[in-house]
Amino acid sequence: MRSVGFLGVVVVFLLVLVSLSDTRRPGKFKPGKGKPGFGKGKPGHGKGKPGKGKPKPPYYKTTTTSSTGSGNCDPEAIKNAVLAELNTTLADLEKELNATVNQLKNISEPDVFSCKRMSGFSDENIPIPYTACDVEKPSGLVNLTSGIFTVQRDGIYRLTFTSRMSAMNGK
What we know:
By secondary structure, the protein is an alpha+beta fold. It has helices at residues 2-23, 75-108; strands at residues 112-116, 132-137, 142-143, 148-149.
């Protein structure tokens, strides 16, 4: 018990000694001007230049007036204006989203067909009809009897034609 009391006296003595040594330093520490060695600038001046630091919050003066409703603050009108603007913005965003979804669908699911003709053909005046299609997505892109490909949607298409020719009657 005696050692605890002695320890308490030593701690109090050290605190008094530290506080006295800080106050006896000439020009190093002035009460209210910050602690030495903390922040930027010269010791004893806190952070930054004197007069700078954490700004005080603005002063708001509240007044009450007995108004008969002649003010311009109509909560219902403000609510309606905000909702109208939100609805317009939402409609624009939905249009943009739908356009983006369609673009992604066109990229991820392109129109594709691979058709062939397995017999000879010599009429130069009509499109070449096909005998079969191995791939046709979506269905209905190609009319086999007319040989006409119908574009389903706007876009860029690449068509490739391959033929194997042989001489007829030695010509």
